[in-house]
Design a protein that fits this description.
With 638 residues, this protein is mainly β. The chain is built from one helix and 43 strands.
Length: 638
């Protein structure tokens, strides 16, 4: 264990050769000074290597650290030894068996007064309590595994406050000890989504069930916890449809070891007093502790990762009625979007919110999509000539665990089998907001010789034209885009920001009627106006970062000058970065890596927003979680 002052502390009893921690990506080794490589090996009963580390790093004297990386290569991932595995040390003088990895399962009960769990029968345990979670032990005790199953329990008085942590080290007398760190169990539920994370007071295989208010089991899965009870579960129905955890639903978890738990999904809402306003209000469980990340820069609504901006952390509590109010802290003061976590009765109910929706209609693609606060109901109604609804398509806004803002996506081909025509009308309702669209007449052509897009649109409208490469890039950018304004007669023309447009590429034009609504038109596989111009092919270029457009897969754009809420296609890097921030306030478990959150395919676009990790290395230091300024990405050992 390393203290805040940087000192390494070894528990004071017959130090074993190897100390493993479930929260660190390295092991500590205490042995006589070694000249040459010292490596850690795990073998199965047949003598086959499960794991062989890279060389250990000397820390001084007889103490070494060895990263738990197969072959010492980070790209191979982190190796987590299981209980009972036999470890060996390899040195120039030969190999020697160290011993088996001890079993240790630990939990800090919901009242925070008792550390309990299971270890190897008769194992010696050192139990330490860190009341204020500052990395310093405030109380400690030594115990033995009590019953035949190794059950143990240690009560501390007075009970520690919320946020306390505990550490339990188990040693059976062999050459291996194991350390596990635990916090008070808290299940993290992303409302209207289908993923559960967090921890429970239980271990082994856990049956996770999503039950509707009427008692019907919507979905279930089985997952395995780690020694601290941490789990990740994705719930989908038998038809493969994602669950959506809504108020009134129940979540049941039945661990192999430990008591079953059940939660009822509460109502949690959030609304900003004005676009980019200063007050967040809503409903939460009465008395719930509230934390919200509040981002005070306008969101990149259709970039792959909006959560890269500066933010503040606001905290408070819900009143006895469930109402709450969170106000801006220090300047700059604005609320554009954020993540609210309501902590109540062993669960953190997480709601992603947006100050105001941005809505869109894909005229060519027969699609409605947009971004808004998760859970808001969506109703889209095509209107007849008298302004009366002809049909009603319904959905609700879902969170996107790949780092984007919450969204909806509704196909319109069922109500427009022959396509959308100029003059067609729509009414789109997002929660209590109503948006009316009348489809204008917009036509455009793309010129592969001059790399321009020109056409006719309603007068004095803000437009974004974008080109997307198909096939072999041959050294050119994968996309480019630029903004323009249509003239008094509606004519417009714009280049594509240096993008080398070629026949077969895709071109899209976005028309913004207001800052919160837009329509777009697409041409797939444009025809050549003339022969492709001959341009020099660069011998080398930097790999640009990806983007997401509403109608297709992620591509790589060139930079554009479009900003604010209209910057649809700016380059970005760092899906892991946004994911690590997203649930930081709810998931108070520093030892759980950010990558433990599942990363399924997005609904609009397939593929990872950060395909080349070496160029997008965006691991974020947890110590920056409460900094109001952006932290620099950096590599860390753990």
């Amino acid at each position: 264990m390393i203290t805040r002052a940087g000192h390494i502390f070894i528990y004071p009893f017959a130090p074993p050769l190897v100390t493993l921690s479930t929260s660190e990506n390295y092991a500590l080794i205490r042995t006589d000074p070694v000249v040459g490589d010292l490596r850690l090996i795990s073998r199965d009963a047949l003598g086959t290597d499960r794991f062989r580390s890279g060389p250990a790093y000397p820390l001084g004297g007889s103490l070494y650290a060895v990263p738990l990386l197969p072959g010492g290569v980070p790209e191979n991932g982190v190796y987590r030894p299981d209980s009972g595995e036999t470890l060996f040390l390899s040195a120039p003088a030969g190999e020697r068996e160290v011993g088996a990895v001890p079993r240790i399962l630990a939990s800090l009960d919901s009242a925070g007064a008792r550390v309990w769990g299971h270890a190897d029968a008769g194992a010696r345990l050192t139990i330490a309590l860190d009341r204020d979670a500052d990395g310093q032990d405030d109380a400690a005790a030594v115990a033995r595994g009590g019953d035949a199953q190794g059950g143990f329990s240690q009560t501390f008085s007075p009970p520690p406050p919320t946020g306390a942590r505990a550490k339990v080290l188990a040693w059976t007398g062999s050459g291996v000890a194991r350390l596990v760190g635990v916090a008070q169990p808290e299940l993290v539920v992303r409302l209207y989504g289908h993923v559960l994370t967090g921890s429970i007071a239980g271990w082994g295989k856990v049956l996770v069930e999503h039950v509707l208010p009427g008692g019907e089991r919507q979905a279930w899965t089985e997952v395995e916890t780690d020694p601290a009870g941490f789990l990740v579960a994705e719930l989908r129905s038998s038809r493969g449809q994602d669950s959506a955890f809504q108020p009134g639903d129940r979540l049941r978890l039945k661990p192999e070891i430990g008591a079953p738990v059940e939660f009822m999904v509460p109502l949690v809402s959030a609304a900003v007093d004005a676009p980019g306003g200063k007050v967040l209000t809503g409903q939460a469980p009465p008395g719930a502790r509230l934390d919200s990340l509040v981002y005070y820069a306008a969101a990149d609504f259709f970039g792959p990762l909006p959560y890269e901006e500066d933010y503040q952390v606001l905290s408070g509590r819900a009143e006895s009625s469930g109402a709450y109010t969170l106000r801006c802290g220090a300047a700059p003061c604005a609320m554009y979007y954020g993540v609210l976590a309501a902590h109540d009765a062993g669960a953190a109910w997480v709601l992603e919110w947006v100050d105001q929706p941005i809505v869109g209609i894909g005229v060519s693609d027969l699609t409605s999509l947009g971004r808004a606060t998760a859970g808001l109901p969506i109703v889209i109604s095509p209107l007849d000539t008298a302004g009366q609804p002809k049909a009603a398509l319904r959905d609700f806004v879902r969170p996107q665990i790949n780092g984007q803002l919450p969204q909806w996506l509704i196909s319109l081909d069922g109500v427009f089998p022959t396509g959308i025509q100029p003059g067609d009308r729509f009414r789109l309702e997002v929660g209590a907001r109503t948006y009316d669209f009348t489809v204008p007449d917009l036509r455009f052509t793309a010129d592969n010789r001059s790399d321009t897009v020109s056409g006719k649109a309603p007068p004095l409208k803000f437009l974004v034209a974008a080109g997307f490469a198909r096939g072999d890039l041959q050294g050119r950018a994968a996309a480019g885009n630029a903004a323009t304004l249509s003239g008094l007669t509606g004519d417009f023309a714009t280049g594509l920001g240096g993008f080398d447009l070629r026949s077969g590429d895709d071109v899209e034009v976005y028309l913004f009627e207001q800052t919160d609504r837009f329509l777009w038109w697409s041409q797939r596989g444009i025809a050549a106006v003339g022969p492709e111009p001959t341009r020099p092919v660069p011998t080398a270029s930097a790999t640009p970062s990806p983007t997401i457009r509403p109608s297709a897969v992620p591509v790589t754009p060139s930079p554009t000058a479009v900003g604010g809420r209209w910057r649809l296609l700016l380059p970005h890097c760092g899906a892991d970065r946004g994911r690590s921030r997203l649930l930081r306030l709810a998931e108070r478990r520093p030892e759980a890596p950010a990558s433990s959150l599942p990363h399924p395919e997005p609904r609009i676009a397939q593929g990872s927003p950060c395909p080349q990790r070496r160029q997008c290395s965006c691991a974020l230091d947890p110590s920056a979680s409460r900094s109001p300024r952006r932290s620099r990405p950096r590599h860390r050992l753990r």
